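in:
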């Protein structure tokens, strides 16, 4: 049967060979087995279920949370002469009826369906009357609470195993550390599934994380120096910032389009379509943009704000360079990002369990930002795939980061926070360290503190860098709902007592920091 798959690969999709591990996955499904497939974005997951869908009798049901993309996927399949349809809540009744009719008459090879729609009794009943080739559960990390994109509907997909025993199931995802993987298998009843974990390294992506000074100017400089005429994605945290940045880039002469969940669906679809079909477009977007986007020649992904987790960072940056040619993952981040994310987390409504998960994820992300060794090694270690040698294609490899002994300065910073009563944000503390007797400082009598003016050896930016690293490493915490009030954590005791030395990154003064790509 695998010969049949080989033949269809060539005949329908026009490819000569399978990629790793497509063939083994397909064989597993053709042999009635279940599979868990973890492959990076762009690895070629879809073929793993599309080919068995064509070979096995009956219809393959593909569960996907990406309603916006179903139509595109179905259209693409139709162009290859494959009969596919989709069902979701955004379609009108008569369209749904048409698809249901095709399904009942056995005309469909593939049916894409949103999880909530699939789990409606009516849909389940209809499927129980059809011959089913397989279930494919796409973006399977959505079932994991440890994962970064939890969707409660996904939990109920465990019904599939109960309602349709004997129909092979394949779960697919691009992001899964070991913990998420285990959770997927447990929650979807895939303990006996064969597991295919494909390498996460994206050697053609150059990772760079720099200090944020004036983010838009830095972005402009990066674009002008390295990416004129290229397609790329610029991620921002908020909708407002997306719109501001897109407009600003337009004023600078770029074809920049905004994308976020608050835009009219029609406009969103239009912008996405333009990005996919035209060249030289910058998509300025929130994280709402990108899942499932398959544009091979995205030359860079820029982050103007810090993602909340390493998984999110990996997935977002992974949209660059799917064609295998050199691409950039470029990010600037600063003290405000750290404070903002920490504070958002502490003030959120989530229960303690979730907060602690989120906290660990943010720690890991901040760790990746602050390390002075190879970024790729850290990234891959996080995904359980350590890289033996430094990669030579990230900023820290290309330009080793100088470190300095910051023990004394860190102590001064922490004492200043303490002496000011742990009730102030970073700007005020820095005023005190620098010995600026502003009205506010005088009013609070902070010019009488022992820490007043003890930090004149560093300038404001250097102090911000110290504070950023102290917050990032968890020596200082940000009070919930406080606009950035800093307080000491237990972990700073050894530092204050002089039992611990601390080295910090020496941030560059100016933004000349990013070296230009100097490939041959
Ligand atoms: P994923 O879902 O893992 O992100 P896709 O299934 O969208 O990736 O595939 C990414 C790209 O790779 C698509 O353009 C697809 O057609 C192409 N592709 C998949 N398998 C092969 C193969 N065996 N040979 C060449 N190209 C392939
Ligand atoms: Zn490296």
């Amino acid at each position: 049967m695998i010969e049949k798959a080989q033949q269809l690969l060539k005949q329908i999709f026009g490819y000569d060979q399978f990629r790793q591990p497509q063939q083994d996955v397909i064989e597993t499904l053709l042999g009635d087995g279940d599979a868990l497939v973890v492959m990076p974005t762009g690895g070629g997951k879809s073929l793993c279920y599309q080919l068995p869908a064509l070979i096995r009798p009956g219809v393959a049901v593909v569960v996907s949370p990406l309603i916006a993309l179903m139509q595109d996927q179905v259209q693409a399949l139709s162009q290859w002469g494959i009969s596919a349809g989709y069902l979701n809540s955004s379609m009108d009744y008569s369209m749904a009826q048409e698809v249901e009719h095709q399904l009942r008459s056995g005309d469909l090879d593939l049916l894409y369906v949103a999880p909530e729609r699939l789990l409606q009794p009516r849909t389940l009943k209809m499927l129980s009357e059809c011959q089913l080739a397989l279930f494919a559960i796409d973006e399977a990390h959505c079932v994991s609470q440890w994962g970064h994109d939890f969707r409660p509907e996904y939990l109920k997909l465990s019904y599939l195993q109960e309602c349709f025993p004997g129909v092979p199931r394949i779960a697919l995802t691009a992001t899964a550390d070991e913990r998420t993987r285990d959770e997927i298998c447990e929650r979807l009843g895939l303990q006996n599934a064969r597991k295919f974990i494909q390498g996460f390294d994206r050697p053609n992506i150059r990772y760079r994380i720099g200090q944020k000074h004036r983010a838009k100017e830095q972005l402009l400089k990066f674009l002008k120096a390295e990416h004129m005429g290229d397609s790329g994605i610029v991620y921002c945290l908020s909708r407002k910032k997306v719109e501001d940045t897109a407009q600003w880039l337009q004023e600078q002469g770029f074809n920049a389009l905004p994308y976020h969940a608050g835009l009219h669906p029609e406009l969103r679809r239009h912008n996405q379509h333009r990005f996919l079909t035209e060249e030289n477009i910058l998509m300025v977007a929130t994280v709402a943009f990108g899942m499932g986007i398959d544009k091979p020649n995205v030359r860079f992904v820029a982050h103007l704000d810090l993602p909340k987790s390493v998984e999110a960072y990996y997935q977002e940056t992974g949209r660059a360079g799917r064609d295998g040619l050199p691409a950039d993952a470029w990010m600037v981040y600063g003290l405000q990002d750290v404070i903002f994310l920490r504070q958002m987390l502490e003030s959120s409504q989530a229960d303690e369990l979730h907060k602690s998960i989120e906290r660990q994820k943010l720690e890991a992300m901040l760790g990746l930002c602050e390390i002075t060794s190879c970024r790729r090694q850290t990234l891959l270690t996080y995904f359980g795939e350590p890289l033996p040698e430094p990669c030579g294609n990230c900023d820290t490899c290309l330009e080793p980061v100088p470190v300095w002994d910051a023990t004394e300065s860190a102590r001064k910073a922490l004492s200043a926070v303490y002496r000011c009563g742990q009730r102030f944000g970073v700007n005020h503390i820095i005023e005190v360290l620098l010995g600026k007797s502003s009205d506010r400082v005088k009013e609070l009598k902070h010019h009488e503190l022992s820490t007043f003016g003890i930090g004149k050896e560093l300038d404001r930016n250097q102090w911000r860098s110290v504070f950023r690293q102290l917050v990032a490493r968890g020596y200082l915490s940000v009070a919930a709902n406080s606009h950035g009030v800093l307080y000491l954590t237990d972990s700073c005791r050894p530092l204050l007592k002089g039992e611990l030395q601390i080295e910090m990154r020496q941030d560059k003064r100016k933004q000349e920091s990013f070296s230009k790509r100097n490939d041959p």
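note: Residues 511-520 have pLDDT under 50 and may be disordered.
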